[in-house]
Structures are given as C-alpha cells and as structure tokens.
Amino acid sequence: MTVLSYREIGAATLIGTASYGRLQADARQFLFPHRRVDNLYRATIGATFRQLTIGQFAPLARVIVERNGSTIDLFDYRRLRIEIGFVRAF
C-alpha cells in the first residue's frame, strides 16, 4: 500500500510518499530455522525545482528511508538513499 501527496509551491513541486509491504513465505527455507516473513516500510520526500531549469530539464532532490524487518537476518536491513538528478520540466 502506498500513499502519495504533493504540493505546488511557486515553481517547485514537493512530493512525499509512504509505503508498506508484507511478504510471507509458504514454508521455511532449507538453510534457515524460520519461515520468512518481511515487513517493508518506505518513506520518500523530494522536490523538483522548475525555476532552475537547464534547457528542458529541472533539478530533482529526493531522500528515501527504507526499513525491511525480516525473520531471516539476510533480508533484515535499513537503508537511507539520497538522489540528486534532473527530470524533464513541463
């Protein structure tokens, strides 16, 4: 399930999302003592700055925080990702 929200502020667009996903394995895997059950949480906040266009492209900045809680340590992680790039401005 994902919830998305955005807001136009002048020549910038702010975007925020929140996601949740769940995975359940049917049976346990041979090498691991428990059946795999994952809960994935993800939050994103970003902005497109249309006033700073270069040709037809506008800068984009985004921060993504992710947490996957799993009964198997191999799939249990936290991640922080920062993305900076350009998107086509229209």
In short:
0% of the residues lie in helices and 67% in strands.
Describe this entry's structure for a reader.
It is built from no helices and five strands. It has a five-stranded antiparallel beta sheet with strand order 1-2-3-4-5, with no helix packed on it. With 90 residues, it is mainly beta. The radius of gyration is 18 Å and the shape is elongated. It has one domain (2-25, 33-88).
The low-confidence runs, each spanning 5 or more residues with pLDDT under 50, are none
Please indicate the count of domains: 1
Query: Helix proportion of residues, in percent?
Result: under 10%
Shape: elongated
Biggest β-sheet description: 5 strands, antiparallel
**Assembly state of the chains shown:** single chain
Report how far apart the termini are.
Answer: 29 Å
What sequence of helices (H) and strands (E) makes up the elements?
A: EEEEE
Cα-based radius of gyration, to the nearest Å: 18 Å
Mean pLDDT: 93
Strand order, main sheet: write it out.
Answer: 1-2-3-4-5
